[in-house]
From TrEMBL:
<feature type="transmembrane region" description="Helical">
    <location>
        <begin position="215"/>
        <end position="230"/>
    </location>
</feature>
<keyword id="KW-1003">Cell membrane</keyword>
<feature type="transmembrane region" description="Helical">
    <location>
        <begin position="22"/>
        <end position="41"/>
    </location>
</feature>
<keyword id="KW-1133">Transmembrane helix</keyword>
<keyword id="KW-0812">Transmembrane</keyword>
<feature type="transmembrane region" description="Helical">
    <location>
        <begin position="168"/>
        <end position="185"/>
    </location>
</feature>
<keyword id="KW-0472">Membrane</keyword>
<comment type="similarity">
    <text>Belongs to the AzlC family.</text>
</comment>
<feature type="transmembrane region" description="Helical">
    <location>
        <begin position="135"/>
        <end position="162"/>
    </location>
</feature>
<feature type="transmembrane region" description="Helical">
    <location>
        <begin position="73"/>
        <end position="92"/>
    </location>
</feature>
<dbReference type="Pfam" id="PF03591">
    <property type="entry name" value="AzlC"/>
</dbReference>
<feature type="transmembrane region" description="Helical">
    <location>
        <begin position="192"/>
        <end position="209"/>
    </location>
</feature>
<dbReference type="GO" id="GO:1903785">
    <property type="term" value="P:L-valine transmembrane transport"/>
</dbReference>
<dbReference type="GO" id="GO:0005886">
    <property type="term" value="C:plasma membrane"/>
</dbReference>
<dbReference type="InterPro" id="IPR011606">
    <property type="entry name" value="Brnchd-chn_aa_trnsp_permease"/>
</dbReference>
<keyword id="KW-0813">Transport</keyword>
<protein>
    <submittedName>
        <fullName>4-azaleucine resistance transporter AzlC</fullName>
    </submittedName>
</protein>
Length: 236
């Protein structure tokens, strides 16, 4: 009996690992997607528009920010600027992750359309042990993208019948999951300082200035804190 092809076995294992790791994220995203769809319909969007927005934008924070200011006609410039600020963190996440993925330049550009906070955190955690392969990333990306798009669509169809997820704390599910993922990175001094400074600055800016400025402020503060806390030999 022929032995299994090592390449195929590795490919299947990477896909299996990607599906296993993204499963809790996908489950946590369901109530958030339902909430987005319901709120978007209440703002005047059709279920088809909600589906297209979730599929083509695929950025929960930016989508919620957009529907918060959604009027007719839509304030295109304001929406674009808010989206830019909210998603600016993806530049930092991409720069951090790119050296750790086994993808060509073209594949990386395509893959990063599906970049999310959770996919980044899971990939960074996996990169502590091994490089992130295309199969692993594709498994995560396909599941989370399809899950988010379908949840938004069902939320739009259900509309007002969904109720308010805040009653059961479902609105905090994604945030809690991401905090857990970041906590798994380790407890080094640099990590603790970076997370603490970034969180504190983001909270203060959100309290006294408001969204979406807290996103960029927290990211920049975290970068500065990481640089200052890093050993001198790393900075030089």
């Amino acid at each position: 009996m022929d032995r299994a092809n090592p390449f195929v076995s590795t490919y299947r294992r990477e896909i299996r690992d990607g599906l296993r790791d993204i499963a809790p994220v996908a489950v946590a995203a369901i109530p958030i997607g339902l909430l987005f769809g319901a709120v978007a319909v209440a703002k005047g969007m059709s279920p088809l528009e909600v589906t297209l927005m979730s599929a083509l934008v695929f950025a929960g924070g930016a989508q919620f920010a957009a529907i918060e200011t959604w009027v007719h006609p839509a304030p295109i410039a304001a929406l674009a600027f808010a989206t830019l600020l909210i998603n600016a963190r993806h530049v930092l996440m991409g720069a951090s992750l790119t050296p750790k993925v086994r993808l060509s330049r073209a594949q990386t550009l395509l893959a990063y359309f599906f970049l999310t906070d959770e996919a980044w955190a899971l990939s960074e955690r996996r990169a502590l042990e091994r490089p992130v392969t295309g199969a692993y990333w594709a498994a995560m990306a396909a599941v989370l993208w399809a899950n988010w798009t379908l949840a938004g669509t069902f939320g739009a169809i259900l509309g007002s019948f969904l109720g308010d997820p805040e009653r059961i704390g479902a609105d905090f599910a994604f945030t809690a999951l991401f905090i857990g993922l970041v906590a798994g990175f380790g407890r080094s001094r640099v990590t603790l300082v970076t997370v603490a400074v970034s969180a504190a600055v983001a909270a203060l800016v959100h309290r006294f200035i408001g969204a979406p400025w807290h996103v960029a402020s927290g990211a920049l503060a975290g970068i500065a804190a990481a640089y200052c806390a890093a050993p001198k030999e790393v900075r030089s």
